[in-house]
Design a protein that fits this description.
This protein is of the alpha/beta class and 133 residues long. The protein contains 5 helices and 5 strands.
């Protein structure tokens, strides 16, 4: 195994940089890949499904993306179903509302919901939770 991987799906370059930097400080062994759009991430996900590359271990997903949003990504991931290895998915959003928080809390693929910018406590929680939770 080459090491663990984390994907960030967020159209805000500042947020991408901040999350990458903060995670890199605490967990430099993670290989981080960023995506500006859901379409880009879904294309890479198809390569994972075809066995060309491995699925990410963790994924940070913004909900408010142009064209296809984070909910669309989760829907496509659900369609793939059992063909996806265990991916710890965390919602990271600047514009939180109770509807999105509740929907994320009940979504079977989402482990947790965090507000932007990610705090050190949020990063610690993302990297210390067991995959069996």
């Amino acid at each position: 195994m080459e090491g663990e991987t984390l994907w960030i799906i967020d159209d805000d370059m500042v947020s991408q940089f901040a999350m990458t930097y903060k995670i890199g400080q605490s967990h430099p062994s993670y290989k981080i890949t960023t995506f500006d759009t859901v379409e880009e991430a879904l294309d890479k996900l198809r390569k994972c499904k075809e066995g060309q590359i491995g699925f990410p271990d963790k994924l940070l997903l913004d909900l408010g993306l142009p064209v296809l949003d984070g909910w669309h990504f989760l829907g496509e991931l659900e369609k793939i179903g059992g063909n996806v290895g265990p991916i710890d998915i965390y919602i990271v959003s600047a514009f939180s509302n109770s509807t999105d928080r509740n929907r994320a809390k009940c979504h079977p693929l989402v482990k947790d919901y965090f507000h932007k910018p990610l705090s050190k406590n949020a990063v610690d929680k993302i990297f210390t939770e067991c995959k069996d939770n």
